[in-house]
């Protein structure tokens, strides 16, 4: 029982170790096994292709050897025909001025010569086609009239050859001595001329050879069990085939015809009837015929595989085993080094005493699982700390703003400004009175009784007061326009029950944008004059406030950094002001969410438009208690 428990524990440990190293196993399969398999497959395919080329080359050599034998046979027949063609007795016999006695003498010697040729060579029959006035022209054994040849399909070709030897394809023929027996023969025929009148045709000489002569040579060609060997004339007609019904017909396969027309000899792959095969061919020089063999590709592949199957399998197996051994040795060193590093990291984590890190034995979950859980715990702790730090920063910024606002005693400020205003009126300095009155309104709106959220209407009024004060400060230097929804657009602006009067936004959101438009846009332009347009509108569930100036503008890349990088404050005494857009953007995102904030469209010399996008938040209006 104890042995079974130990065995089960060992198997469980191995299984958990395999699971812990699953990424390494996947990497091993992807980076080693798959590339190795692809390499071995490519190697086998290339090796098979080389063997296939060797097999087809061997087939071509076999076919060329048969072509040499055929050329030898045709050369011997040509020499026999030449000996008859130049025979003196044949010339005497063909001479139209020869007497009957001279013809008889010539025929005696010609008969002996013909019998000798038919006995000692491959010639089955010698036939002479002569004028019907000649002696023995109607014999129909060795002598025939010219008229009997005129019905043959090759008559005109032989006649136009002007004495050159013309070879016919295999055809069937019946002879007078055995009219019921059909012989398959092929013939070499040439035209004979009158020696005294060379322009006149005196006859034709034909050497007939049994088709067995071709069959014996072709039968010796051994390429494949499924081979088809035949001979084709240059015009595409079949001059020899094992199927006698195809003799004299045109070869139907256009693919084969196109393949053998390309060169004198070669090997061409073709696809016919959805079957891949090779056409091996060579030219018989004596006749111009093509000796053709059609061999299915599957037969060549099987023959190529059988040539060196054992050696190729042994080579591939040896290379594979050696490759895998080297890979496993390399992996052993890598895993050993990784385990050492993992142990070092785990010891360091334990030594630091990470809060909440449970002690786990290596044999239970494995080093990798312990490392993963430890690092995961650390990541969560770091994220919590980052969020806590971020919230502290936001709270610190809001506390600083409140502290600055709290430093001003509203009642003391209002009373002081009111006293100054009456003094100015008493001295009839109305411009100072107007400016002091605007400043009082500005502070009243900006302080907002200590509230951090105001309505859009109040924020727009604050921007208006600020711009009026700046107009007093910089007279006739700029103008401003508010573009708000009118009564005829009430339905669009009140979509969802929201209006500009009831929408809430963070306090002091619009004023810094207006300040930047004036001091960094218009006041820095060449003429220090311009126009500021402030728009407020609602689209679906979004509130938009935009400020547009026609000042100097800025580089688009620089404009984007204003929203991503905080910048130090600058003086507000007219010599400059802070690009406080980063803080404004962060406050909007805290108020509405990460998807909201500022966007800047600007080009140098073309002005700037800054748009603030808020999520609609409506002010809750309590019902009047007196109603």
TrEMBL record:
Localization of this protein: Cell membrane
Membrane topology listed for this record: Multi-pass membrane protein
Gene Ontology molecular function: protein histidine kinase activity
A Pfam family per the record: HATPase_c
PROSITE patterns in alphabetical order: HIS_KIN (PS50109)
Ranges where the Histidine kinase domain occurs: 510-618
Name used for this protein in its record: Two-component system sensor histidine kinase YesM
């Amino acid at each position: 029982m104890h042995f079974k428990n130990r065995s089960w524990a060992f198997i469980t440990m191995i299984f958990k170790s395999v699971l812990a190293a699953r990424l390494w196993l996947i990497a091993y399969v992807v980076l080693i096994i798959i590339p190795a398999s692809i390499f071995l497959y490519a190697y086998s395919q290339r090796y098979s292709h080389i063997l296939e080329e060797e097999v087809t080359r061997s087939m071509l050599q076999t076919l060329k050897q048969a072509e040499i034998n055929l050329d030898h046979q045709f050369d011997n027949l040509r020499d026999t025909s030449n000996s008859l063609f130049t025979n003196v007795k044949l010339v005497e016999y063909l001479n139209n001025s020869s007497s009957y006695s001279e013809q008889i003498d010539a025929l005696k010697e010609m008969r002996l010569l013909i019998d000798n040729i038919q006995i000692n060579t491959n010639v089955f029959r010698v036939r002479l086609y002569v004028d019907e006035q000649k002696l023995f022209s109607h014999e129909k054994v060795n002598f025939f009239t010219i008229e009997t040849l005129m019905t043959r399909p090759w008559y005109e070709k032989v006649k136009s050859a002007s004495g050159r030897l013309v070879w016919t394809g295999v055809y069937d023929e019946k002879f007078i001595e055995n009219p019921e027996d059909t012989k398959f023969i092929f013939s070499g025929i040439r035209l004979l001329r009158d020696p005294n009148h060379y322009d006149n045709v005196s006859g034709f000489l034909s050497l007939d050879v049994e088709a067995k002569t071709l069959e014996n040579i072709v039968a010796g060609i051994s390429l494949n069990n499924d081979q088809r060997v035949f001979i084709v004339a240059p015009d595409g007609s079949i001059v020899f085939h094992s199927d006698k019904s195809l003799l004299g017909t045109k070869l139907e396969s256009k693919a084969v015809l196109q393949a053998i027309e390309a060169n004198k000899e070669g090997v061409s792959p073709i696809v016919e009837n959805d079957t891949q095969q090779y056409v091996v061919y060579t030219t018989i020089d004596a006749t111009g015929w093509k000796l053709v063999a059609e061999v299915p590709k599957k037969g060549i592949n099987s023959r190529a595989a059988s040539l060196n199957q054992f050696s190729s399998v042994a080579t591939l197996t040896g290379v594979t085993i050696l490759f895998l051994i080297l890979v496993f040795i390399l992996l052993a060193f890598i895993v050993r080094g990784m385990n050492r590093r993992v142990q070092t990291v785990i010891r360091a984590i334990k030594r630091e005493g990470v809060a909440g890190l449970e002690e786990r034995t290596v044999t239970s979950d494995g080093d990798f699982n312990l490392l993963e859980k430890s690092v995961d715990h650390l990541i969560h702790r770091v994220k919590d700390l980052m969020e806590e730090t971020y919230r502290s920063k936001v709270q610190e910024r809001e506390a600083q703003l409140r502290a600055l606002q709290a430093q001003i005693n509203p009642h003391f400020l209002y009373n002081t400004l009111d006293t100054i205003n009456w003094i100015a009126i008493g001295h009839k300095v109305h411009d100072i009175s107007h400016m002091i009155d605007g400043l009082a309104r500005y502070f009243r709106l900006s302080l907002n009784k200590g509230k951090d959220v105001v309505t859009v209407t109040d924020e727009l009024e604050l921007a208006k007061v600020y711009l009026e004060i700046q107009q007093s400060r910089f007279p006739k230097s700029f103008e401003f326009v508010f573009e708000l929804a009118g009564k005829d657009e009430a339905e669009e602006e009140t979509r969802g029950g929201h209006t500009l009067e009831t929408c809430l936004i963070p306090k002091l959101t619009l004023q810094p944008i207006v300040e930047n438009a004036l001091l960094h846009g218009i006041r820095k332009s060449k003429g220090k004059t311009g126009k500021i347009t402030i728009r407020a509108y609602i689209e679906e569930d979004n509130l938009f406030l935009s400020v547009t100036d026609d000042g100097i503008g800025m580089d688009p890349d620089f404009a984007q950094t204003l929203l991503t990088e905080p910048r130090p404050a600058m003086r507000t005494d007219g010599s400059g002001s802070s690009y406080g857009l980063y803080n404004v953007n962060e406050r909007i995102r805290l108020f509405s969410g990460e998807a909201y904030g500022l966007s800047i469209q600007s080009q140098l010399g073309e002005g700037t438009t800054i748009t603030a996008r808020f999520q609609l938040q409506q002010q809750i209006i309590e019902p009047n208690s007196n109603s």
